[in-house]
Automatic annotation (TrEMBL):
Organism annotation: Bosea psychrotolerans
GO molecular function, one term: metal ion binding
Protein name: HAD superfamily hydrolase (TIGR01509 family)
Claim: Iron is one of the keywords in the record: no
CDD domains hit by this protein: HAD_BPGM_like
Chain coiled-coil ranges: none
Cited InterPro entries: Beta-PGM-like (IPR051600), HAD-like_sf (IPR036412), HAD-SF_hydro_IA (IPR006439), HAD_sf (IPR023214), PGP-like_dom2 (IPR023198)
């Protein structure tokens, strides 16, 4: 294949906010009475999809509507931890910078928090202004909308796009968009299980370290940086 555009997921791929959001959100779910949920359960059910879809899953498990300030409480608790805890994953800047051609971010996170998190992690300059969110399209992952929106905005045919994703919904979305997708397990608690789930969803390869990323994409046809 030829790779004309690399599309990066953000949370759990470029930066490890998934664990942070998971811990805060799980504590909030426990406070509701969903004490049977574990972090793995939360990751399997909620990670990789828009928050509005996650709310429906939590409400179904809870058996009633969530408090009106539930999301606000989570966002406020997360914000208290972000400044000190959000970091780019090891080797991200070097790996991204070593690859030529077009690149962008396409994430389930709403646009303002997405840009904020990339800024805190010191990565926003690598992608700005090509930072896209599921909040800009009708449907979130696992639907392909955000990836198709990103490729359209970047002027690249979907079949010439390569996606890196850490979640099953993200992999399914990329495949539904007609794109090649690499699975990333660098922040997974159970790398073997995550790799199996991502492969089953359609990832053509799995990596767990950004040190492997430039050679991986070169093997798929992406140019090196000039």
């Amino acid at each position: 294949m030829g790779v004309d555009l690399i599309i990066y997921d953000c949370d759990g791929t470029l930066i490890d906010t998934e664990t942070l959001y998971g811990e805060v959100s799980l504590a909030a779910c426990h406070a509701l009475g969903l004490t049977q949920w574990t972090l793995d359960h939360y990751v399997d059910q909620i990670v990789g999809i828009p928050w509005s879809d996650g709310v429906k899953i939590i409400e179904a498990a809870h058996g009633r509507a969530l408090p009106v300030d539930f999301e606000t409480r989570i966002e406020e608790a997360v914000a208290l931890r972000l400044e000190n805890e959000v970091r780019a994953l090891p080797g991200v800047r070097e790996a991204v910078g070593a690859i030529g051609g077009l690149r962008c971010v396409a994430s389930s996170t709403s646009l303002a928090p997405l840009r904020r998190n990339l800024g805190i992690a010191g990565l926003v300059d690598l992608f700005d202004p090509h930072i896209f969110s599921a909040s800009q399209v009708a449907r979130g992952k696992p639907h392909p909308d955000v990836f198709l929106f990103a490729s359209d905005q970047m002027g690249v045919t979907p079949r010439n796009c390569l996606v890196i994703e850490d979640s099953v919904p993200g992999v399914l979305a990329a495949r539904a968009a007609g794109m090649t997708v690499i699975g990333f397990t660098g922040v997974s608690h159970d790398k073997q299980r995550s790799a199996a789930r991502l492969s089953e969803a359609g990832a053509v390869q799995i990596i767990d370290d950004f040190g492997l990323w430039p050679d991986t994409v070169a093997g798929l046809g992406a140019p090196a940086a000039a």
